[in-house]
């Protein structure tokens, strides 16, 4: 439901300066998750510092970088399509990102690409650009932008705190593509956050593959027991909204909840539970603690009643029986999660789950997905209806003639719903934080008026 220009996979560089004579120019297509979007921003910032111009379209670019996603077969197909489009529109294409971990897969379909590099291989991408389009910097003109190149609206930014993952979930190949957990130094993360806030960012979206594991890869004698807690406290002092994504449900997550109740970070947790039946979770190589998770959720809500919980689930996982799926539905009824996404299981090249017995027929997956989403939608609709009459803070994302598109503290960009103000919005601008009274609710969105 969000405006198309807020979609990470449709992002283009937001740079408007005029191209100087002789300046080499690069285009960027960024696909996939916010973590890949951060990689794109870093690549463009480095190129901009070397004197390259950034083109928002194919025709104005001397070459195009396509940052790919390779997590699911459908994402791989989308990446190949994007590479093909860039080749057709521009002809000079450099490929990077997760799908770049399989260079033969790319060159087998598109042999004319100039180079293929893997995820977060910044130096290799720069080398490929230098080879294809040699730099021609002007030391009197080309300077590194103070806040770097951003592919998101100016009022929010993704803050990536680590790379990789130490889990061995059978359905996931992220550790194979992005490696083991490698956390950024806390001072570097906080300094980046400070610069973003100084540049006008009102919302920091903390991302990684495993946010709650942040810092646990550091030597034990050189860190606090759970560094994510110290990081959250520091970020909470900067005066911006701080939203936590991809939080694995370790026991120490309960220590984050008081920070949310105090208002240091947003009362929002994005936790990928994936399933609820212990046998399914065991086949996934996930923690087998569905019932204890319900107790944990109840304890979180007791400390922070305004807590919003978002999660994703997989239906049709190999071996999933009708009884296991029913357990998931019953668990969802009890958990009453606020924001829910669901995927039908599909094989991913290299994933260990491919070899499991009992693959579920596609028509059964589709039926279970529809039943799951119907229940999740009903829960969402009831929870939003309960907000009618409440006064809440919202952040403005976009202002058009007929309405302002906003988000509440319970809504992350792109993946959650919106709140629309359709009267008295003319003086608003993106990044404003205002108070509204909710006067209407739908299945996923709210409408309100300024107070």
Helix-strand blueprint:
Layout: E1 25-30, H1 34-49, E2 53-55, E3 63-68, H2 73-89, E4 93-97, H3 103-109, E5 115-116, H4 122-132, E6 156-160, E7 162-163, H5 174-178, E8 182-183, H6 186-198, E9 203-207, H7 227-235, E10 241-244, H8 257-262, E11 268-270, H9 278-284, H10 290-303, E12 308-315, H11 322-335, E13 339-344, H12 362-385, E14 391-399, E15 404-408, E16 419-421, E17 433-441, E18 446-450
Parallel strand pairs: 1-2, 1-3, 3-4, 4-5, 6-9, 9-10, 11-12, 12-13, 16-18
Antiparallel strand pairs: 7-8, 14-15, 14-17, 15-16, 17-18
Helix pairs in contact: 6-7, 11-12
Overall geometry: globular
The largest pleated sheet is described as: 5 strands, parallel
Uncertain ranges = 1-13, 142-146
Indicate the CATH class of the largest domain. Answer: Alpha Beta
- The number of helical segments is 12
Output the structural class.
alpha/beta
Count all strands and give the number: 18
Straight-line N-to-C gap = 25 Å
CATH topology of the largest domain: pyruvate-formate lyase- activating enzyme
Percentage beta strand: 15-25%
Strand arrangement across the biggest beta sheet: 2-1-3-4-5
- What is the second-level CATH architecture of the largest domain? Alpha-Beta Horseshoe
**Helix content percent band:** 25-40%
Spell out the CATH superfamily of the largest domain: tm_1862 like domain
Mean pLDDT: 87
Supply Rg. 22 Å
**Whole-number tally of structural domains:** 3
Order of helices and strands: EHEEHEHEHEEHEHEHEHEHHEHEHEEEEE
GO molecular function, one term: 4 iron, 4 sulfur cluster binding
Subcellular location: Cytoplasm
Domain Radical SAM core: 151-382
Cofactor: [4Fe-4S] cluster
